Amino acid sequence: MGKVELDIILEKLAALQGYYKELKELEHISFEEYARNSLYKRTVERLIQLIVEAGTDINNMLLKSLHKGPTADYYSSFIELAEAGVLPMEFALNIAPSTGLRNVIIHEYQKIDDRKVYDSIKNTLKYYLQYMKLINDYLNQL
Q1: Domains in the chain: ranges and CATH
Q2: Is the model's pLDDT at 79 over the cut of 70?
Q3: Residue 139 and residue 133: Cα distance in Å, rounded?
Q4: 49-60, pLDDT tens digit by residue?
Q5: Which residues are catalytic?
Q6: Once rounded to an integer, what is the mean pLDDT over residues 4-16?
Q7: Calpha distance 122→27 (Å, rounded)
Q8: DSSP string, the chain
Q9: Which residue from 45, 90, 129, 135 puts its CA 20 to 30 A from 82's CA?
Q10: Sign of dihedral through CA atoms 62, 66, 70, 73?
């Protein structure tokens, strides 16, 4: 991996960390507060979208640096990164479904379920904190 690619990945990782911190600030709100406050809802939805997109951008850049072709979809980027030895497969299988919620938020395939989005806050924080650590560990080994 060249310096330019590494710098871009590090920038994406820094952005991801910023989105993570912002979402963490909203972790304490109750479902009732969330459901009746459109500002909370739109903020959480957007932050989850940005977190997932930053992660999948990093995945695809790492896969490219490993001379892997582009992935078929966001979900696959986590699985293929595990197959390449960058992430543990069990972890990839846990974090990859976060891409489905991102797709619902972006494309509004169905009415967005406030409960589903609210309930995903904790898992998003849990898995993407671990993701950032795993990616940092991988980059430090290069």
Answers
A1: 3-141 (1.20.120.580)
A2: yes
A3: 10
A4: 999 999 999 999
A5: 102, 107
A6: 97
A7: 7
A8: --HHHHHHHHHHHHHHHHHHHHHHHTTT--HHHHHH-HHHHHHHHHHHHHHHHHHHHHHHHHHHHTTPPPPSSHHHHHHHHHHTTSS-HHHHHHHTTHHHHHHHHHH-SS---HHHHHHHHHHHHHHHHHHHHHHHHHHHH-
A9: 45
A10: negative
pLDDT digits 0-9 by tens, 59-75: 999 999 999 888 999 99
136, two tokens: 């940092």
Question: pTM surpassing 0.70?
Answer: yes
Burial 86-123 (b: 16+ CB within 10 A, else e): bbeeebbebbbebbebbebbeeeeeeeebeebbebbee
